[in-house]
Structure formats: structure tokens, C-alpha cells
Design goal:
The chain has 148 residues and is of the alpha/beta class. Helix content is 46%, strand content 16%. A 4-stranded mixed β-sheet has the order 1-2-3-4, sandwiched between helices. It starts with 19 loop residues before the first strand and ends with a helix.
């Protein structure tokens, strides 16, 4: 994974966890996922992802998994033609895994946005809010209500 920023002071480097963080505060980490990545992570990559979250706990990291697809699309991905042939998982199975993670680990939240362009805006916004604030927010609720 690489660290990216959208300001002139960008520094690209390998991170131990996630894709985006701030150099001055690495305790808030954003993991950006396309719909394909999200499904793969919560199916075949589930155990590896849980180990990453557990490692983050040791280092006091708070994770935001930012999925570049609306939640309704993610719930119904198995009905989409590009997934029919390759994926044996259902939306119910994937969201059961998501629920298991959020119930067991208090250092992770999932947030679904419309697309990659919108995720870019939210990466900056969420990092700007900082760990203390986002860890107390229900990100999906605030996104859905246009509060953030």
C-alpha cells in the first residue's frame, strides 16, 4: 500500500496498514477499496484482513474502509453479470463478514460512497477530521444524511 495525499506536500511510501494516512498522525488509516477489492477482502482475503486489523490494534490504529460503491450495489453485487461467473459469495455472506468485523473490532468502520471520485474527496475530509472525531462518528449514517 502507498500513502497518498492530494496536496503539494505528497509523500509516497509503504505503509504497514491501509492506503492513506497523515505523516503527523498515523493512528488514522484509510483503506480504499473498489467493489471487487471489497468482495475479495471479505471472502478469500478475510483472514489476512483480520490479521491486519489485529496488527493495527497493537499499534493503536483506527481503520476506515472506504468502499467505492453505494451500499445498495455492494449488497446486491451477486446479481451483477461481472460477478456471476467468478464469485460464489452473496451480499448476505459478505455483509455477515462485515458485521462480524465491526462487532469484534472497535477500531474499524466501513463507509460506502458512490465512486472513486467521491472517495478522493472523503479521504481528504476524513483525514482532516482526525482519529478522535471519526472514531466517535457513525460514518455511514453521517454520509447518508449528508452531514459530512
Amino acid at each position: 500500500s502507498c500513502e497518498h495525499s492530494f496536496t503539494p506536500s505528497t509523500k509516497v511510501q509503504k505503509l504497514n496498514y491501509g492506503d492513506y494516512t497523515l505523516e503527523r498522525d498515523t493512528s488514522l488509516v484509510i483503506e480504499r477499496k473498489s467493489l471487487n477489492d471489497f468482495i475479495g477482502t471479505l471472502s478469500k482475503g478475510y483472514d489476512r484482513f483480520v490479521r491486519e486489523i489485529q496488527g493495527g490494534i497493537v499499534n493503536q490504529c483506527y481503520f476506515i474502509v472506504l468502499v467505492e460503491a453505494p451500499i445498495s450495489t455492494a449488497l446486491n453485487f451477486h446479481k451483477m453479470r461481472q460477478f456471476n461467473r467468478f464469485c460464489k459469495s452473496s451480499g448476505g455472506f459478505i455483509f455477515h463478514k462485515l458485521r462480524s468485523i465491526t462487532e469484534e473490532y472497535r477500531n474499524v468502520q466501513f463507509m460506502f460512497v458512490n465512486d472513486r471520485k467521491e472517495s478522493k474527496d472523503y479521504i481528504e475530509k476524513l483525514l482532516g477530521f482526525g482519529r478522535e472525531l471519526v472514531s466517535r462518528m457513525d460514518l455511514q449514517y453521517n454520509y447518508d444524511k449528508n452531514i459530512i
